[in-house]
Amino acid sequence: MNDILTKQQAADLLQCSERLLAESIRDGKLKASKVGKRIVILKDDLIEFIKANRYKGDS
User: Per the CB 3.0–4.6 Å rule, which of 1, 21, 24, 47 could disulfide with 11?
Assistant: First the structure.
């Protein structure tokens, strides 16, 4: 089963602010779901977000 993370947990894993994470969700870059009043993120979706946003260097 997929691990379910809160915005805060996902932000902690990415070592970024919850605000930056919320912007990525709002912009459609990171998949998330609303459960009641809470926003949750599947760990697999967070991993896909990381892969999709890999730094490619100054090419």
Answer: 21
Per the structure block, which two tokens stand in for 35?
């459960």
Where exactly are the structural domains of the chain? 4-52
- Written as tens digits, the pLDDT of the chain (59 aa) is 579 999 999 999 999 999 999 999 999 999 999 999 999 999 999 999 999 999 887 75
| Residue pointed to by tokens 């946003």 | 53
List CB contacts of 21: < 8 A, sequence separation 6 or more: 7, 10, 11, 14, 30
